[in-house]
Amino acid sequence: MKILMLGFEFLPVKVGGLAEALTSIAESLAKLGNEVLVFTPSHGLKEGKEYASFKISVNGEWKEVKAYERIQNGVRVFALSDYVLDNEDVYGPGWEGMLNKIVHFAKASAGLMNEIIKREEKPEVLHFHDWHTVLAAALLKKYFQLKSVFTIHRLNKSKIPAHYLHEANLSELAPYPDIDPEHVGAYIADIVTTVSKSYLWEEWEFFKNFQGKATYVYNGIACDFWNEELLENKDLPRHERRKIILENLGLKDGIAFMFIGRFDRGQKGVDTLLKAIEILTEKPEFKKLRFIIIGKGDPELEKLAHDLGSKYPENVKVITKMLKREFTRELYGSVDFVIVPSYFEPFGLVQMEAMCLGAIPIGSAVGGIKDTIVSLEEDKENATGILVPPRDAFALAQAILKMAQIREEDPELLKKMRANGKRRAKEVFTWENAGRRYLKAYRNEIDKAIPFIEPK
Predict the structure, then answer these.
(1) Cα 330 to chain centroid, rounded
(2) For a 10 Å CB count at each end of the chain, is N or C smaller?
(3) CATH code for the structural domain at 228-428
(4) In the chain, where the domains are located
(5) Is the separation of the CB atoms in 337 and 360 below 8 Å?
């Protein structure tokens, strides 16, 4: 099958998890024997050979666009380049800058498709990712009648002024002054997917508008990087690695918990974690607990975390800077537990990275966290971690104490949970499995979300 994918990020251009997801999906589809093309803004990265040059009309002026093609791990990547698309600010500069880039990308994508079908067969299916690519997908659908799949990695829930759709020659999709691009994308697509089953139902208020189209395809995890064989001290037992890591961070050995993520008030739940730690300070078990808290974001949350670290320097280490992936891997491969207290999470990578490296996740029972962690309280035999209600600091504190007790009193259970987690990450949530399910979506041979049938 010849597949065209649209994305605003593609490695090595990366802002968040979207780049790794889109790149992994494209590469897995290529490994499964498909021809995969990717259109993406250059964002200043113009590698490869010039494939085509043409002009587009924007705001009444003709502007030159160039398309550069490179082969990256079996995927044909086309970087679209002009004076707007070359800006290195991936989602900018500013709100208007981003919207202008979206319009340029849309028109440039249609122009490039025109050039491609002069030389070769057109793709059989269009797969576009998140709302930034909706205008491009709409033009490709309008002029080339491609079957299409729209993947929402995380709902944005914002609107854009209709004049941007008018400028993109999509006036028929802009009957109101402000337009929800995610609704437009789901409206024009033949299939609409998101990245976990639980997130699909949690956001049913949106997805119910597209019944008959809506389904899910789980993301995967690349355990080839998040792999214990790549650790600096891979030959040491885990407790020795933990002791070394904690000492390097200025902490004595103990029962080690880690949080890594954005410091924000809307999603990642670091404020719930800080409250849970405050609760635990009143418990005698606290003296054995070690918390490594890593992230950046909301200045007030950063201050609260640092204040907690200053108050309990023997128990809490706060790092508010970006870490190299290799050092993060060392942490996952050394700590006992990883805490993922998100308020919502479409899929989530932290719990998956942790399981790849034998760190047991303690996570909120939401979205992809709920779908990927087998909770100890629900299935002891196959457990990979433990789930707690979101926004509940007391429940999180109790889960931390419970897992600490298990580490002290039942090391065999802990060992089994680590093995379960590694196996689940490496066998169930693979990018190859994601690719195979997307192929079913492209053929419309995939199960759908049906509200009158109980989800399993």
Answers:
(1) 21
(2) C
(3) 3.40.50.2000
(4) 2-216, 228-428
(5) yes
> What CA–CA distance (Å, rounded) separates 407 from 232?
24
Amino acid in the structure at residue 185: G
User: Which residue in the block uniquely carries the two structure tokens 């199960």?
Assistant: 447
Contact present, 255 and 402 (Cβ < 8 Å): no
**Residue 182 neighbours by CB distance under 10 Å:** 20
Judge whether 277 and 316 are in contact, CB under 8 Å. Answer: yes
List % helix, strand, coil for the chain (3-state, nearest 5): 45, 20, 35
Residue 371 has phi, psi (to 5 degrees) of: -80, -25
CB of 11 closer than 8 Å to CB of 19: yes
Query: Residue 145 has which token pair?
Result: 């009648």
Please give the torsion angle defined by the CA atoms of residues 406, 412, 417 and 422, in that order, rounded to the nearest 10 degrees: 140
| Domain formed by 2-216, architecture | 3-Layer(aba) Sandwich (3.40)
Indicate if 228-428 has the same CATH topology as 2-216. yes
Cα 24 to chain center, whole Å? 11
Distance separating alpha carbons of residues 428 and 156, to the nearest angstrom: 28
Angle, CA of 419, 423 and 428, to the nearest 5°: 155
CB atoms within 10 A of CB 172: 10
**Helix (H), strand (E) at residue 160:** strand 160-161
Per-residue confidence in pLDDT tens, the chain, 456 aa: 999 999 999 999 998 889 999 999 999 999 999 999 999 999 999 999 999 999 999 999 999 999 999 999 999 999 999 999 999 999 999 999 999 999 999 999 999 999 999 999 999 999 999 999 999 999 999 999 999 999 999 999 999 999 999 999 999 999 999 999 999 999 999 999 999 999 999 999 999 999 999 999 999 998 889 999 999 999 999 999 999 999 999 999 999 999 999 999 999 999 999 999 999 999 999 999 999 999 999 999 999 999 999 999 999 999 998 888 899 999 999 999 999 999 999 999 999 999 999 999 999 999 999 999 999 999 999 999 999 999 999 999 999 999 999 999 999 999 999 999 999 999 999 999 999 999 999 999 999 999 999 877
